[in-house]
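Researcher: I've been going back and forth with a colleague about how YciI family protein might be arranged in three dimensions. Neither of us has a model we trust, so I'd like an independent prediction. The organism is Catenulispora subtropica, in case that matters for your notes. Sequence below.
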Amino acid sequence: MKFVINLHINPAVLDALTDEEKAAIGQGHGAFLEGLKASGELILTQALVDPSQAAVVRVRGGQPVVTDGPFLEAKEYVGGFYLVDVEDKARALELAAQIPDAAIDGLGVEVRQVMFSDGQLEA
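Model: Here is an independent structure prediction for YciI family protein. You can compare it with whatever you and your colleague have in mind.
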């Protein structure tokens, strides 16, 4: 079963962390990633740029309208994700609990099963 583990970031929370705490998060992600590779459960991981560098595309009257910046005024945004292939939801939740962000108040780790992939519904 495939799951996306989304990392919800709050810049204010990250800014309040010490350099040592930030380094520990980075090291924790490194160790987590190595574990996923070793277990064969990792499909893909990506980190995303800050929403201020994003663009929103809407089609109005048949023409694309592009707006710079984030889609919503929000305190949190998706900062990255891990795409994993695991036995079941319980394992995906177990993995999510190992991500350093899950232990920091104000940050979030969301687990969602992949429903559709490569033109086919997932089982």
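Researcher: What would you highlight for our discussion?
Model: I'd start with this: The domain at 2-121 is CATH 3.30.70.1060 (Alpha-Beta Plaits). After that, consider the following. The mean pLDDT is 91.
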